[in-house]
Amino acid sequence: MPRAERPLDPDTGPLPRFAADLRKLREAAGRPPYRELARRAHYSSTTLSDAAGGRTFPSLSVTLAYVAACRGDCRAWEARWHAVAAELAVGTPGDEPADAGPEGAPYAGLSAFQPEDADRFFGRERLTGEVLAKVRDRRFLAVFGPSGSGKSSLLRAGLVARARAAGWPVLLFTPGPRPVEECAVRLATVTGEAPGALLTELRDDPATLHLRIRQAVLDRAPDIDTLIVVDQFEEVFTLCRDRDERVAFLSLLITAATATTSRTRVVLGVRADFYGHCVQDPQLVEALRDAQIAVGPMSSQELREAITRPAALAGCTVTGPLLAAVVADATGQPGALPLVSHAMVETWRRRSGNRLTLDGYLAAGGIQHALAQTAEVAYRALSPAQRNVARSLFLRLTALGVGTEDTRRRISREELDPGPDTAFVLESLARQRLVTLDEECVEITHEAIIRCWPRLRGWLTEDRDRLLLHRQLTEATAGWEAQDRDPHALYRGARLAAALDLAAADGSRLTSRERRFLDASRDAQAGETAAVRRRTVRLRQLVALLTVLVVVAVTAGVLAVGSRGSAIRQRNVAIARKAAADAAEVRPQNPALAAQLNLAAYRLAATSDVRDQLMSAFATPYTSRLTGHGSDVVSVSFAPHSTLLATASWDRTVRLWDVGDAHRPVQSAVLHQPGRMLAVAFGQGGRVLAAAGERSVRLWDVANRRAPTELSTLPAQRAAPTWVAFRPRGDIVATGHTDGATRLWNVRDPRRPSLVATLPGHTHVVTSTAFSPDGDTLATTGDTTAVLWDVTDPARPRRLDVLRGHTDTMTSVAFSPDGRWRPVAGTTPHGSGPSAAAGGRGHRSSCTAIPRSSGRWRSTPTAARSSRPADPPCSGTSPTPHAPGASA
User: What pLDDT does 763 receive?
Assistant: First the structure.
């Protein structure tokens, strides 16, 4: 009978909770005996029982074997194991873990190897030789590699250490936010001059760096040059916001390396994802041509040397299983070197005697979890207030990438609020090698922390827009203070509103410097707003005063002008009434003179009595009025030798009227067509009516005037019809169109019309067509010309003449009954030749229509009138609509 397990209290800590959950997993699997679990897990039953006993924390391998034997989720339990390991490592808040820090460890951890660490820098001997050979061959070189590939260690513990051993002067620095200033400080250590004077010279002349270095090595051998190594060159793009500073720094380096008498060799260490930024500068592109070396992951053999040889120097051995596990985890993984180094430091802290074991490596979390576990342990060891300080610190130490990965950001201690919590957090994180401190600056030890610590990644992604806004506020504050708190450098408008929203949402993130900047910005904007308000009030008062003065002046002027105008109006009214009375007296003898007098009187004074006299003078009696259309009437036509009249309107109808009794006209029928009607014409003795609308031309049988029937529709053309006219013989219909062409149709059988010919005579819309009385000549108008055609043979029309002289669009044409005269509406009627006939002058406005008359012509400036013609026309006589009122 198996012995019962000791009861556990999950509330007593993370280890009892972990053991209790292992027991629950076993119960869910059916509570198999430990002997059965040992058979499945290949661990002894005692080891598996101790794992669920709650007294000791089992190793990761034992835990995963226990879970697999109980058919649990190994991946979830692996994450759970690392979380518990981190929680157990924290201990009591404020206590330090035993053997904290990598002091004494043969590995660099997250820090890059420095020149003084060259004796324990292994695995990169071949690549270091290649870089050194390239430097001897080229004066400008860029070393590219992904973050964590070990390029900083390669440059510092490899290249710089060997260059110094060869007697070369070396300037090693990172550019930071002000690279020219950093270069001046480093150069001052070589020349012995004041950095301030050097800074001024470097900014004024790009050749200064070259000349100063040449002066410094003047007494050295010709093969000894000064080596400038700019590590983390990507800071030129991430931290340096001043484009002029960046261009000046690049000019200094390139000039120093490319001068004919150069004694300088320049090496840049650049993160690979910033290669695109480098090739955007023309100078840098030219300098980097054939001058690049890529740093990739270590090979398996190089990893073994980097792991075992430092341990051997410290008198320790790396067990075979540990070496195999680390090499398997890191081989081919870009950016894994700082993780390997940190994991080996943590394994060193958990060593067994002088042996580094796989259990210690797994307890540290391996390269996948060691860094996150260390950061989490350090964070959890802080008090709640100190955790807020740590969160704000890590966010400030990260430069947010735009199109690139986030990078570390070096900040000055002045950017942080001084206080006991800030000092404690900095020291605590520095002991865990998560941040690096010097007298003035603070920075994250390696960018791997940004990639591998889930908590920091969550902070950076939860509100990235707000972080970008905060970063801009920090830079604006620094700029404001650098310019002696210039008011013009303060925030205003939308930027100030966004920053104030940030402060209201999470003011704890802001330092006292940033809050002072916001307070100054708010006060400055409030002062400017108050000043604008005061100016607005003063301007309004001034405008009101000026308005009163203008009103007074205008009133006085109006009164004066009104008095004079009133006298003039009274005089004009008296003269107009006298002229109207005189016109009434002469009207019976000379109507034309009376009309002129009335018109002059009305123009002088448009009083009601003068207007009545004018209307009486121009009134024309009419027999009757035809009403019924719903829109403008645009065309009328009489049937030959008949009392039938057709009227076309824009209301899409044609109405037939019996006007036998002129005093009582009778509407016979209403014809409907799609689109607005434009023209009507009778043919074949008045039996057939052609009606042209916007969309089609239709032929109607009107022999029964009370019940007309539709005969046919002329085939549709590309251009819409505008006019229609019948040849007197009734066999041909001419239609005008919007494309400037006139088309002739054979309608001997009106049920089957056919196209005979097309006459392309005009550049614009055809406005009218008319046949001569004998039917052998056709006149068309459009644009500013009238064209005469010989249509004796309709299938072969021939152009006779083009009548010119009008300066505006010609709207109508008609023949006299004898066919000798061809008047055209507009200016002058033309005779049989192209010259104008006498007596046709005198129009002062546009003449829109000319009807045929049995006698001579008489027309008005806006319309042509005649008595009912003895020989009625065959086409409509007015393309211009009557005034709305729908009467004809």
Answer: 86
Q: Are strands 721-726 and 732-737 parallel, antiparallel or unpaired?
A: antiparallel
The CA distance from 591 to 601, in Å, is 15
Residue burial 409-426, b: 16+ Cβ < 10 Å; e: rest: bbbeeebbeeeebbebbb
Paired residues of 170 in beta bridges? 227
Contact 203, 187 (CB under 8 A): no
Task: Please state the three-class secondary structure of 600-660 as a single string.
Answer: HHHHHCCCHHHHHHHHHHHCCCCCCCCECCCCCEEEEEECCCCCEEEEEECCCEEEEEECC
For residue 238, the one-letter residue type is T
- The first and second tokens of residue 619, run together, are 């009134």
Rounded to whole angstroms, the Cα distance separating 390 from 385 reads: 9
Strands (DSSP E) found in 38-160: 140-145
Q: What is the 3-state secondary structure (H, E, C) of 763-829?
A: CCCEEEEEECCCCCEEEEEECCEEEEEECCCCCCCEEEEEECCCCCCCCCECCCCCCCCECECCCCC
Smallest Cα–Cα separation from 365: which of 345, 380, 391?
Answer: 345
Rounded alpha-carbon distances, angstroms, from residue 367 to 322, 330, 687? 12, 8, 107
DSSP 8-state assignment for residue 118: G
List strand residue ranges (DSSP E) for 259-342, in order.
Answer: 264-271, 292-294, 317-318
CB-count exposure of residue 886 (10 Å: 0-12, 13-18, 19+): buried
> Tokens standing for 739?
């494309």
Amino acid occupying residue 265? R
Tokens 């040059």 locate to 225
Output the six-digit token pair for 149. Answer: 């590939």
pLDDT at residue 878 in the model: 39
Tell me what pLDDT residue 466 has.
79
pLDDT of residue 788: 93
pLDDT of residue 101: 36
CA-nearest of 618, 623, 624, 649 to 636 is: 649
Helix axes 179-191, 243-258, angle to 10 degrees: 40
Residue 543 main-chain phi, psi, to 5 deg:
-65, -40
Spatial distance between the Cα atoms of 575 and 603, rounded to a whole number of angstroms:
11
- Smallest Cα–Cα separation from 496: which of 530, 468, 463, 472? 472
Q: What is the pLDDT of residue 553?
A: 84
Residues in the chain predicted with pLDDT less than 70, given as ranges, are 1-4, 9-12, 86-103, 332-334, 439, 507-508, 619-624, 819-888
Helices and strands (H, E) in the chain, number of each type: 29, 28
C-alpha–C-alpha distance, residues 703 and 668, integer Å:
12
DSSP code, position 830: B
Q: What span, in angstroms and rounded, lies between the C-alpha atoms of 723 and 850?
A: 15
Q: H-helix or E-strand containing 837? A: none
Q: What burial letters (b/e) apply to 755-793, b meaning 16+ CB within 10 Å?
A: ebbebebbeebbbbbbbbeebbbbbbbbbbbbbbbebee
User: In angstroms, what is the C-alpha Rg of the chain?
Assistant: 53
How far apart are the C-alpha atoms of 265 and 139, rounded to whole Å?
A: 4
Q: Cα separation of 256 and 206, whole Å? A: 8
Per residue in 197-226, is it b (16+ CB within 10 Å) or e — as a string?
A: ebbebbbeebebbbebbbebbeeeeeeebb
Which DSSP state fits 887? B
Model pLDDT, residue 100: 35
Count Cβ neighbours within 10 Å for each residue of 708-730 and write b for 16 or more, e otherwise. beebbebeebebbbbbbbbbbeb
Dihedral, CA of residue 878, residue 881, residue 885 and residue 888, to nearest 10 = 10
Q: Answer yes or no: are the C-beta atoms of 652 and 672 closer than 8 Å.
A: yes
CA-wise closest residue to 828 among 804, 809, 863: 804
Residue where the block lists tokens 């985890």: 329
